[in-house]
Specification:
CATH topology of the largest domain: D-Maltodextrin-Binding Protein, domain 2
Number of helices: 12
GO molecular function, one term: transcription cis-regulatory region binding
Radius of gyration: 23 Å
InterPro entries: LysR_HTH_N, LysR_subst-bd, WH-like_DNA-bd_sf, WH_DNA-bd_sf
Shape: elongated
CATH class of the largest domain: Alpha Beta
Largest sheet: 9 strands, mixed
Strand content: 25-35%
Protein name: LysR family transcriptional regulator
Oligomer: single chain
Distance between the termini: 47 Å
CATH architecture of the largest domain: 3-Layer(aba) Sandwich
Family: Belongs to the LysR transcriptional regulatory family.
Keywords: DNA-binding, Transcription, Transcription regulation
Length: about 300
């Protein structure tokens, strides 16, 4: 049992809803239900009953509530007091390479303009590396495009994204009106490095369709991948955000999976026991307000049939 369990218990008791508590703490409802179940198992009592569409606190829950409020209040006071001792508010942001190469620079600039009192550090790496840094408390919060596998981390979908298959003018597929998944068999590809969420999603697609490709080049740099598409006649599966300029200039041809197998989200991630600071709350609020320019670009696409 941790202070996190008690914080969620108080939130459910005060809002009367698991979903409202989840929204308050920026997590998914199943995570709240799991923590309440763990708390009930720890103490061997039932804390809430669902009657019809309403959640009712039990007698055991009523007895726990004032004690839990007192403990969480003292903990929050301690966190806020220690946070106030810093001469400068700090926020350590992590981002995966696609996000760091597309929306993060604009987002950080907007955050700095609205929060000049906050000192920002940003670290860019792949999903596996960013996840480990969050677990090790080397970062406060992150935006990642891959699947977060650590049970220590809370991951919430925030922004839409999708991958595209890209080839340059010198590639034989450039003039084709459509492609089939089997057309990719034994083709040369430039790929992201292992640990990349982009690579993992594409490799799952290849496995489902029993397609084997040749990895001719492996980069962790979007500009290097773009050059490999244009100059080395490699294909690549990459976020649509990273090829917007090249696509508008007709330097590359983009194919989109008709089965929507490459649709994904950018996820907000932080440690489940992390105290959500004011700087983190401001980060999340601003992220919710930025959907006007964080949506994927609308570009001409050709179909990749399954």
């Amino acid at each position: 049992m941790t202070i996190w369990h008690l914080q969620l218990f108080v939130a459910v008791a005060e809002t009367g809803s698991m979903s409202a508590a989840a929204k308050q703490y920026m997590i998914r409802q199943p995570s709240v239900s799991q923590k309440i179940s763990e708390l009930e198992s720890h103490y061997g009592v039932l804390l809430f009953e669902r009657l019809g569409n309403r959640l009712h606190i039990t007698e055991a829950g009523e007895k726990l509530l004032p004690l839990a409020r007192d403990l969480t209040s003292r903990f929050n006071f301690l966190e806020d007091y220690m946070e106030s001792q810093h001469a400068v508010n700090r926020l350590r942001i992590g981002a995966t390479i696609t996000i760091g190469s597309s929306i993060l620079p604009q987002f950080i600039e907007r955050y700095r303009c609205e929060n000049p009192d906050t000192e920002i550090f940003a670290g860019i790496s792949n999903t596996a590396s960013i996840s480990q840094k969050l677990v090790n408390n080397e970062l406060d919060i992150a935006l990642v495009e891959g699947v977060v596998k650590s049970p220590e981390l809370v991951s919430t979908p925030k922004l839409k994204d999708f991958l595209v298959l890209a080839c340059g003018k010198g590639h034989p597929f450039y003039s084709k009106p459509s492609l089939h998944s089997q057309d990719l068999q034994d083709m040369d590809f430039v790929m992201r490095e292992p640990g990349s969420g982009t690579r993992e999603l594409f490799e799952q697609y290849l496995a489902r369709h029993h397609v084997h490709i040749k990895i001719a080049l492996e980069y962790n740099n979007p500009e290097a991948m773009r050059q490999a598409i244009l100059v080395n006649r490699c294909m690549a599966v990459i976020s649509v955000r990273l090829l917007e300029d090249a696509a508008r200039a007709n330097e590359v041809r983009l194919f989109q999976s008709q089965g929507q197998e490459w649709n994904r989200t950018f996820n907000l991630v932080y440690h489940k026991n992390k105290h959500v600071t004011k700087a983190m709350r401001r980060f999340c609020t601003l992220l919710d307000q930025c959907s006007d320019w964080t949506n994927p670009p609308l570009l001409p696409m050709r179909p990749l049939l399954d």
